[in-house]
Amino acid sequence: MKKNKTTLVMTNVLMILFVGIFLTLSGRFLYIQAVGEVQGINLQEWADNRRTNNFTIKADRGTIYDRNGMELAQDRATYRLFAIVDETYSTNPEKKLNHVADVKATAEALAPILEMEVSDIETTLQNGIDSDRFQVEFGTEGSQLSQETKLKIEALDLPGVNFDEEAKRYYPNGTFASQLVGLAQKKDDSIITGLTGIEAQLDNYLQGTNGSISYERDKYNVKLLDPNEVIQKEQDGNDVYLTLDQKIQTFLEDAMSQVVEEYDPERITATVIDPKTGEILAMSNRPSYNPNNLGQVENWYNDVVSTPIEPGSTMKAFTLAAAIEEGVYNPNEEYKSGRYKIDEITKPIHDYNRDWGTITYEEGIQRSSNVAVSKLVWEKMGTDIFLEYLKAFHFDQKTGIDLPREQAGILLYNWPIEKLTASYGQGLTVAPIQLIQAATAIANDGVMMKPYVISKIVDNQTREIVEETESEVVGNPISEETAQKVLDTLETVITSEHGTAHNIYNLSDYSVAGKTGTAQFSQGGYLEGESDYIFSFLGIAPKEDPELVMYITVQQPKLEPGEAGSAPVSFIFKNVMENSLHYLNIQPDKERQNAVRTYTFPDVIGRATTQVKEQLVNEGLTVTVIGDGAKINKTNIDIGDRVVANQRVLLTTTNPTMPDITGWSVRDLLELSELVGFNVEISGNGYAVNQSIEKGSTINKDTKVTVEFSPPDQSIDRTQEDSPEEEG
Predict the structure, then answer these.
(1) Exposure winner among 197, 406, 594, 707, fewest CB in 10 A?
(2) Residue (of 555, 559, 563) closest to 517 by Cα position
């Protein structure tokens, strides 16, 4: 009886316990069903997320163009390789495999293309399978693959091997105004972000807004018939147009690369500006870098705007301008050169040559006499008035150019010696861009223009202008009459037998006004040694109606014994200025013997290919026909343009094919790519030596051509002309 009673009690307890558990669970289920939440998590949303795929639609970063619409920086499609290793993804394996079933065969096929070891690929695949992963990737070797590599892998038809498209910032011209255009790279969040130059300065404009797409799918990752698809469209970044001219910039880059090859200088800066508008047409520095292949970067900074230097005797152009404006400069008045001492200084001012004797002030300017400009400031003009002119030329402030990291120089003007040395560019410092801005006043009838490089910002979708830069007058330090007199005097620096630039900076077809400079100052202090100077030149051409101003500095070139420091500077100036003026169709203002033959380019579109080629060859032009069509449909020269003998003319017809481009310049190649529309990747500088596409291969907008360039074998002519002693 007692046993039965115990059993009954236990049964009742268990029953009550069971009923309690049942009621608790049922209540919980009813509660969950009613509110649809567990621990604050909405079950409906959780279920939707589990069966919904969400993808980001990447927005393209805006493109940076030159003034004529040539791409300088753009997003380029690259590809990331991944392999699906989950066998459940192959829903019908007998019919089609959607995953990697043969690890060894897949690794052996991919290894030579990815330049990886077979064992490394096998390990990656097998580890993914053993870890029950859905897919695996292949690190840096499997990312940022070119379209050419993607096509090679796709041709293998490997099961489970797939690609994701991803963007990479690409710079079609390689080492090309690198510190100005800047650099943009991917960060950890896979967003391309501007780091330097215009890429950083306008990052907010260039950066796009990503879109998204979501849809419901089954457990095999296949979209449902009714997927509840939601698409939010991406918005690409705005496009930026610069004032740079790709052709003038290419002239500059080629010349600077040759000077680096021949003279191995510590640093070079060079800038070309339109003095009438303030537009920067070309700007470059050395050392520079190729943003597509960084390697070891020696210099990230744009020295033209970020590195002040002592300008040396180029400052005498502005001292002369001040003296003429004040009416105290008489070119025919004589003075005793060589040495100048006043009571307020302990050591006298010296000319680099003390044997000229008594000469005129005009000859003093031609010879770059320190004594001449010192006397103009101290005895004729007065130091207080001269200071007003230095400030009127804005040597005491930044230009405000639309580039990052601008640094103004230091205007030291406290002690008598500083007031004298400022007249010939020692003691004070200026950034090259400050001197360039000041020079626009001399070249532009006394009106000083603010330099700028951003022309306009354009909406990528609507093509409406978001922002546009207008030319800005920032001063009028001298009159039009004074500006013309300064130009006339600076022309004699080149034409006079006494001039420091005589037979060095003269151009074949155009008159030049200019001033040489030699300074010892560097960021680390004063330099010592025969070539331990910063050699510079401020050139304006044509003198009668200036179209371009160019300022060049070359620091510590490796000179041969007795060689003038002006040699590398003049090589850059003469090549860039002469070619640029011809390219801009500026009418020559000099007559010369053995002039280069020019020819007005005719209308050739639609005409017979053989007839056009014969006509142009007879005119002395180098003609390349791209394609085998009977008629011409495009050319790289506009109707009416003036072309010179041996200039390369490209004629495209139907069915374009790749020519042999050995010996072509970067500019010629870029003109070809622009005509046909194919993608080009440039390696090196100088002239073409290798091409990835063989001669005769079909080319179109989907073609990618890689070309290797190398400096020319011939060296720069380092022989000196009959020229005066270099100023020191």
Answers:
(1) 594
(2) 555
Asked if residue 727 is part of any domain, the answer here is: no
Q: How far is CA 526 from the centre of its chain?
A: 31
| Joined tokens for residue 571 | 């090589």
CA 639 vs. chain centroid, Å, equals 30
* 324 shares its domain with 451: yes
Instruction: Tell me: do 279 and 335 sit in the same domain.
Output: yes
Closest CA to 625 of 640, 635, 615: 635
Decide if 187 contacts 290 (C-beta within 8 A).
no
What CATH number corresponds to the domain at position 602?
3.30.10.20
Query: How many alpha carbons lie under 13 Å from residue 708 in its C-beta half-sphere?
Result: 5
Q: Running along the chain, 728 residues long, what does each successive block of 10 average in pLDDT?
A: 68 80 74 62 58 72 94 89 88 84 90 90 90 88 85 90 86 92 82 92 90 68 66 87 95 94 95 98 96 88 95 96 96 95 93 92 96 96 96 96 95 94 94 98 98 96 94 97 96 92 89 91 54 90 96 93 86 95 89 60 87 82 86 86 78 87 80 82 73 85 80 52 45
Q: Let me know: does 491 contact 590? Beta carbons within 8 Å.
A: no
Question: CA dist 594 to 366, 509, 532, 598, Å?
Answer: 29, 11, 38, 12
The pLDDT assigned to 23 comes to: 77
Work out the angle between the directed axes of helices 666-676 and 246-263 (0-180°, nearest 10).
Answer: 150
Residue 723 belongs to a domain: no
Dihedral of alpha carbons 455, 172, 137, 186, sign: negative
Quote the CA–CA distance of 101 and 608 in Å, as a whole number: 58
Supply the pLDDT for residue 209.
81
Strands 704-710 vs 37-38: parallel, antiparallel or unpaired = unpaired
Q: Is 110 left (phi over 0), alpha (psi -120 to 50) or beta?
A: alpha
Using CA atoms, how far residue 85 sits from 29, 106, 136, 316, in Å, is 38, 11, 7, 74
At 594 the pLDDT is 45
Q: What is the model's pTM?
A: 0.76
Is 140 among the domain residues? Answer: yes
DSSP string across 333-362 = -EEE-SEE--TT-SS-EE-S-S---EEEHH
423 tagged catalytic: no
pLDDT value, residue 524: 52
In a domain, 474, yes or no: yes
With beta carbons less than 8 A apart as the criterion, state whether 632 and 612 touch.
yes
Q: Residue 399, by phi and psi: left (phi above 0), alpha (psi -120 to 50) or beta?
A: alpha
pLDDT of residue 672: 84
One domain for residues 258 and 375: yes
CB 121 within 8 A of CB 111: yes
Domain extent for 641: 598-710
Of these residues, 90, 178, 313, 369, which one is catalytic?
313
